[in-house]
Design a protein that fits this description.
This protein is mainly alpha-helical and 71 residues long. It contains 2 helices and no strands. Helix content is 72%, strand content 0%.
């Protein structure tokens, strides 16, 4: 297939766009998580963010992976 490289490039760009969106979400959420009074709610939100991070990391090269959120 002569267009394999184009498809691979588009898949890589989609993965990078998704990773950028998750990074922005984590950046916005971290200060709020660390100041929340309800520790259980903060941990639940951190778990949600980590699930998103895990999903995105599956399609990223090792060097570009996003570290999990830790409180």
């Amino acid at each position: 297939d002569p267009d394999w490289w184009a498809r691979r490039y588009l898949e890589q760009m989609k993965a990078e766009d998704a990773a950028d969106e998750v990074r922005r979400s984590v950046t916005r959420a971290l200060p709020l998580l660390r100041t929340m009074d309800d520790r259980a709610a903060a941990q639940a939100r951190a778990a949600e963010l980590n699930a998103l991070i895990d999903e995105v990391n599956r399609s990223l090269p090792e060097a570009d992976r996003i570290p999990p959120v830790a409180l």
